[in-house]
């Protein structure tokens, strides 16, 4: 984690100086984040098989929104997974690059979105289509249909526990969350999620994949800078996710800059 923390601090310091003077168009907004995560969890699967002994990852990301009008928003962004995890990976470098572009519609309390994602890792590309629905009301209920158009470099496990090529399956994820505004600068959010594999996804097994319960804090340092931190517990079905450990605690910390 030493290299991860050094890069995290250097990146955050440089961006803080740059974003303090940014003046953006009213229709354009975005968030640049630098996060340290104990695990890389992808739809219930513990990607680096860290379980209860995490090595950690550094995950910078950039998300940009363009308001087409009062109802329609264009969103695009990128996310990186930077670490030296896994056997035979002694160097600290980017292991995965995810990019996306999507279109969102909102009216009143209702929101819907369609997003295309391209996940580049293991020398291949995993193509994804996400369809999301949400309500801006009590507990902020949401539903996401996450469908692999192509499995790319995704690994999977057959019924005998032997690793095979991934599957172009579908995951359905339902979510709830509530935010407590404890002060003008500090808030706590409690997110809950349940994921169900509708067909072959991480393994040949379908059905309940995972549930998660988190506690995420955010402290506003300034109008553009916030510190974020929290913990999330995952309960997974190992036969559906392929995890070595069915249950584990993850934690995160980071800094974000809005413009």
The sequence of SSEs as H and E is HEEEEEEEEEEEEEEEHE
How many helices does DSSP assign? Answer: 2
Runs in which pLDDT lies below 50 for 5 or more consecutive residues are 17-24
CATH class: Mainly Beta
- First-last Cα distance: 29 Å
How would you summarize the topology of this molecule?
Blueprint: H1 2-19, E1 28-37, E2 41-42, E3 45-46, E4 57-67, E5 72-83, E6 93-107, E7 110-121, E8 124-135, E9 142-150, E10 155-157, E11 163-165, E12 170-181, E13 186-197, E14 207-220, E15 225-236, H2 238-241, E16 247-258
Antiparallel strand pairs: 1-4, 1-16, 2-3, 4-5, 5-6, 6-7, 7-8, 8-9, 9-12, 10-11, 12-13, 13-14, 14-15, 15-16
Description:
It is globular and about 45 Å long. The protein has helices at residues 2-19, 238-241; strands at 28-37, 41-42, 45-46, 57-67, 72-83, 93-107, 110-121, 124-135, 142-150, 155-157, 163-165, 170-181, 186-197, 207-220, 225-236, 247-258. Strand 2 and strand 3 form a beta hairpin. It contains two helices and 16 strands. 8% of the residues lie in helices and 59% in strands. The strands form three sheets. A twelve-stranded antiparallel β-barrel has the order 1-4-5-6-7-8-9-12-13-14-15-16. The chain has a two-stranded antiparallel sheet with strand order 2-3.
């Amino acid at each position: 984690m030493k290299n991860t923390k050094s890069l995290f601090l250097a990146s955050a310091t440089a961006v803080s100086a740059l974003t303090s003077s940014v003046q953006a168009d009213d229709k354009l907004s975005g968030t640049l984040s630098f996060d340290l995560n104990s695990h890389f969890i992808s739809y219930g699967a513990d990607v680096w098989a860290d379980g209860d002994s995490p090595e950690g990852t550094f995950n910078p990301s950039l998300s940009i929104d363009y308001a087409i009008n009062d109802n329609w928003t264009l969103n695009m962004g990128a996310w990186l997974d930077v670490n030296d995890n896994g056997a035979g990976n002694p160097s600290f470098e980017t292991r995965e690059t995810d990019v996306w572009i999507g279109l969102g519609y909102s009216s009143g309390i209702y929101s819907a979105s369609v997003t295309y994602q391209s996940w580049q890792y293991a020398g291949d590309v995993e193509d994804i289509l996400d369809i999301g629905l949400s309500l801006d009301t009590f507990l902020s209920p949401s539903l996401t249909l996450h469908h692999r158009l192509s499995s790319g470099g995704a690994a999977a496990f057959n019924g005998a526990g032997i690793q095979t090529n991934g599957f172009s399956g579908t995951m359905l994820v339902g979510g709830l969350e509530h935010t407590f505004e404890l002060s003008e600068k500090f808030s706590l959010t409690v997110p809950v999620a349940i994921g169900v594999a509708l067909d072959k996804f991480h393994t040949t097994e379908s059905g309940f994949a995972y549930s998660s319960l988190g506690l995420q804090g955010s402290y506003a340092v300034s109008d553009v800078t916030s510190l974020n931190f929290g913990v999330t517990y995952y309960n997974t079905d190992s036969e559906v996710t392929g995890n070595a450990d069915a249950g584990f605690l993850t934690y995160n910390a980071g800094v974000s800059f809005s413009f």
